[in-house]
Amino acid sequence: AANGVSYTATTSGTYRCVITNVCGTYTSNSITVTTTAVPVGSISANGNTAFCTGASVLLSAVPGSAGTTYQWKKNGNVISSANSTTYNAVTSGSYTIAVTNNGCTSNSNVIVVSVYTAVPSKPGTISHINGNKVCPGDVRIYSINPVLNTVSYSWQPPAGSNVISGQGTTSITVSYTSSFQNNDSLRVAAVNSCGTGLVKAL
Q1: Is the pTM of this model over 0.85?
Q2: Tell me: the pLDDT tens digits for 100-123?
Q3: pLDDT for 144 beyond 80
Q4: Is the pLDDT of residue 147 over 80?
Q5: Is the dihedral of CA 195, 171, 110, 40 positive or negative?
Q6: Which residues touch 37 (CB under 8 Å, ≥6 apart)?
């Protein structure tokens, strides 16, 4: 019940206070309260968010009603003059937008953009267990340390073998078939949006 000396208004309307004592009843002045829905803060990328230097990705926000303002941010910092519903990102960072309408502000989801300047380096040593000798029917696990600025890894198994799991990652499982002749190498290269780096062989 709203019977105290204060009241917290949460919905739109015109509010008055009626005061009653032994001398009679008195009605206060009125106050009109208008509530505004929080604007939608949501962004999406119109393309790949990982690319090589010289490319870009267009980020878009959901347009709001008349009077809505927009402020793009990178890594939490305001981007000067970036006040429309779209922003063309050309550098690495975490992008968001603050959408404001009638004093209510909503912060969007985060989109991470990764910009690469060159192909990745050559992977280091290919590690494995159970020794170098492999026979038809064997299954082996191979791995490398992560390579900086890499999106995925391209493994090429020796002739007569198959990658049965892990392709694209730093660790794979290889199955050797009956046609394996032990005259080929296992190869791996790191890949990003600029291309494929040098191949490491075992």
Answers
A1: no
A2: 998 889 999 999 999 999 999 999
A3: yes
A4: yes
A5: positive
A6: 104
